[in-house]
């Protein structure tokens, strides 16, 4: 890696390696720099001069930037196999991550209408457009089993850690907004029962579909549109200044999940998936209908009652969620509806 200055001084003592997934393969200059360095121990004099410049000019929705961010953020979750946990707070890596984040969040702001009318953007989510549910409709009408499995692989990047990104915002909230969000998170974490955690229910679905349910198992094959969705959650959650955006994203997700879950439960039954596999979606139909009201009234409402200046960020969170979900939908349909349908992954599951 020619663009990183490697110190000749002794590195920090190595900490016990994390027992997480393996590091994914790089997809460009920035992700190659990060993956290469994480295979070593941190040193106080390393810099990322070349990758920093590349981060400023990277495609804000491209594979290199989003794999790089994914790797940086995963250090705050489960980590990676044989990667020194000290990298989590390494100043040089955080500087590089900051450059990637600025590129990404600028693109999110530029790609959304913006505004400060939170009620209006949330009301819009309650009225589904005529073309809503294009992916489950495609799967039910002419989809094939391999396409459904690809969809589950994409979503596994988030659902196998569902609720974790939203937990970052809890210390940034106060009073009723915090208490209400904790109540929603309690449900997401299975009401205190490990076997009912939503991440566990999705792992059950993966097993029913003959897929690997291990955390991070498919990070190497999912494409930028899915990585961007989970990166957005981590970005909003890890920055106190963007707490309003995380709340907006969470509200948007809860409002739109119940009808989406209903559609995907029908898709799974269409393909003959049994109760154990459909439970992840059927659980969301009822739970998120309740969560929608709690998020809107108690979390968003009380957050803005105490911090009204966050309205524009709440709107950003709602709109950015819609933007990135649309990117993923477009990517899936472009691949599957081509004259010769092709994989939506970086390589077909048969080659994984």
Automatic annotation (TrEMBL):
Enzyme class: oxidoreductase
Segments of this protein annotated with the region Disordered: 1-26
Pfam family, one: Haem_oxygenas_2
InterPro entries with a match to the protein in the record: Haem_Oase-like_multi-hlx (IPR016084)
EC number: 1.-.-.-
GO molecular function annotations of the record: oxidoreductase activity
The UniProt record lists the keyword Oxidoreductase: yes
Alphabetical UniProt keywords: Oxidoreductase
Recorded superkingdom: Bacteria
Signal peptide: none
Name of the featured protein: Iron-containing redox enzyme family protein
């Amino acid at each position: 890696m020619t663009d990183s200055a490697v110190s000749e001084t002794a590195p920090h003592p190595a900490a016990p390696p994390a027992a997480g997934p393996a590091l994914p393969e790089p997809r460009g200059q920035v992700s190659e720099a990060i993956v290469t360095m994480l295979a070593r121990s941190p040193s106080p004099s390393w810099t990322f001069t070349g990758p920093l410049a590349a981060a400023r000019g990277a495609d804000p929705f491209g594979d290199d930037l989003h794999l790089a961010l994914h790797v940086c953020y995963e250090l705050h979750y489960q980590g990676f196999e044989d990667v020194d946990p000290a990298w989590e707070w390494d100043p040089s890596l955080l500087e590089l991550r900051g450059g990637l984040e600025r590129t990404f969040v600028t693109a999110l702001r530029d790609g959304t209408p913006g505004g400060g009318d939170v009620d209006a953007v949330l009301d819009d989510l309650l009225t589904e457009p005529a073309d809503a549910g294009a992916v489950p409709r495609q799967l039910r009408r002419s989809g094939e089993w391999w396409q459904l499995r690809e969809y589950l692989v994409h979503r596994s990047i988030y659902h196998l850690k569902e609720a974790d990104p939203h937990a970052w915002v809890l210390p940034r909230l106060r009073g009723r907004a915090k208490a209400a969000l904790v109540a929603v998170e309690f449900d997401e974490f299975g009401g205190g029962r490990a076997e009912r955690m939503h991440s566990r229910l999705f792992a059950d679905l993966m097993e029913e579909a003959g897929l690997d349910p291990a955390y991070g198992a498919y990070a190497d094959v999912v494409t930028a549109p899915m990585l961007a969705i989970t990166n957005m959650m981590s970005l909003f959650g890890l920055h106190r200044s963007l707490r309003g955006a995380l709340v907006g994203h969470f509200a948007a997700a809860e409002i739109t999940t119940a009808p989406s879950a209903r559609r995907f439960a029908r898709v799974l039954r269409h393909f003959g998936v049994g109760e154990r596999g459909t439970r992840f979606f059927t659980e969301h139909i009822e739970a998120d209908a309740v969560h929608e009201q709690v998020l809107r009234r108690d979390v968003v409402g009380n957050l803005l009652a105490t911090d009204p200046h966050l309205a524009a960020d709440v709107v950003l969170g709602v709109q950015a969620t819609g933007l990135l979900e649309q990117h993923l939908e477009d990517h899936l349909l472009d691949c599957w509806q081509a004259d010769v349908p092709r994989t939506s992954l970086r390589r077909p599951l048969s080659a994984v």
